[in-house]
Amino acid sequence: MKEQKISFISDGLKLDGAFFTDEQNSQPSLPIIIVCSGFTGQKNIHPERYARAFTPKGYTVFGFDYRGFGESEGVRERVLIEEQVRDIASAVSIVHERAQAEGRKVVLAGWGMAGGLILDAFRLCEDQIDALVSMNGFFDAVRVQKALRGEHGWKAFKQFMAKERLRLSKGGEPKGIDPFDIYPLDPVSREYVFTELVKAPGYGVTSTFDFADSLISFCPEKHLDERYASVPLLIAHGAENDLHPVTEAKSLYASYPGPKELFLLEGGGHTEWMLDEDPRFIRFSGHIASWVSANV
Question: Range of 95's domain?
Answer without folding.
Answer: 2-141+218-295
